[in-house]
Amino acid sequence: MKIPEYIRPLQAEFEKHAIPENAFQMKKYMKSRFEFFGIKSPLRRELYGKHTSQFGLIPADQREEIVHWCWEAPQREWQYFAMEFLGKEVKKVNKEIIVLYEFMIVKKSWWDTIDFISANLVGPYLQKFIEQIPHRTTKWMNSDNMWLQRTCLLFQLRYKNRTDTELLISFIHQLEGSNEFFIRKAIGWALREYSKTDPDFVVRFVRENSLSGLSEREALKWLKNKGKLM
Questions:
Q1: Sign (positive/negative) of CA torsion 204, 199, 160, 189?
Q2: Which of 66, 100, 141, 151 has its CA 20 to 30 A from that of 84?
Q3: What is the structure's pLDDT at 230?
Q4: Any idea where the domains of the chain sit in the sequence?
Q5: pLDDT digits over 91-111, tens only?
Q6: Do 78 and 117 contact (CB within 8 A), yes or no?
Q7: Could you list the mean pLDDT of each consecutive 10-residue stretch along the chain, which spans 230 residues?
Q8: By three-state DSSP, how is residue 75 classified?
Q9: CATH says 105-230 is which class?
Q10: pLDDT value at residue 199
């Protein structure tokens, strides 16, 4: 796949700053699922800043081409670049971009991209286009794709008092029998985050429902750490 011109300067910077020792450790941490340049987040974002100052954010008319190229590239830093740059323009997106987000969720799926996409791309998108929630979430929940289902659980992470608790609880009930680690973890994480807004709701829900041990521990972790739960 031909490299987009917009990407070429950043490719040169990534190659220049590659650290093989870091790449080995990062690949190992990701269970050998992905290759890496070995560029850690602080330096990576420094390179982003340099690139943005010279070339701007991803051109709108090249967005799909560039994101697809980044998702095909072997090094994981390219996927991080694509999703993080999309995050910088999340308030300006149109309704059709959800197709691109879905592509990013189901391809090269792992927790590191899914968690960012859920909270920082899909979350703001569904706040802007709230009418999309019923159709999209029903489709994702019925997909049998663990990562789309995890997105349903996590897209409201930053909603705080705007969280649709009925919707969240409906997802939890549909998935509470799952044996998937990443689903059980996400159930607990979603509840834990909401416990910072409405601790009584979360404590009551956990006590009245049979969650997995992992989900329950995650749900109550923040409250216990803050000494708010005996």
A1: negative
A2: 141
A3: 63
A4: 1-88, 105-230
A5: 999 999 999 999 999 999 999
A6: no
A7: 93 97 98 98 96 96 97 98 96 95 98 98 98 97 97 98 98 96 98 98 97 97 89
A8: strand
A9: mainly alpha
A10: 97
> What share of the chain in percent tops pLDDT 70?
100
Angle of helix 165-175 relative to helix 181-195, nearest 10 degrees, comes to 160
pTM of this structure: 0.95
CATH topology of domain 1-88: Leucine-rich Repeat Variant (1.25.10)
Which residue(s) pair with 35 in the sheet? Answer: 75
C-beta separation of 149 from 140 below 8 A: yes
Query: If you write DSSP's letter for every residue of 119-179 in order, what string do you get?
Result: IIIIHHHHHHTGGGHHHHHHHHHTT--HHHHHHHHHTTTT-GGG--HHHHHHHHHHHTT--
For residue 95, give both structure tokens: 């309704």
Instruction: Say how many C-beta atoms besides its own lie within 10 A of residue 67's C-beta.
Output: 23
1-88 and 105-230 in the same fold: yes
Q: Which two tokens mark 213?
A: 């041990």
User: Quick one: pLDDT at residue 28?
Assistant: 97
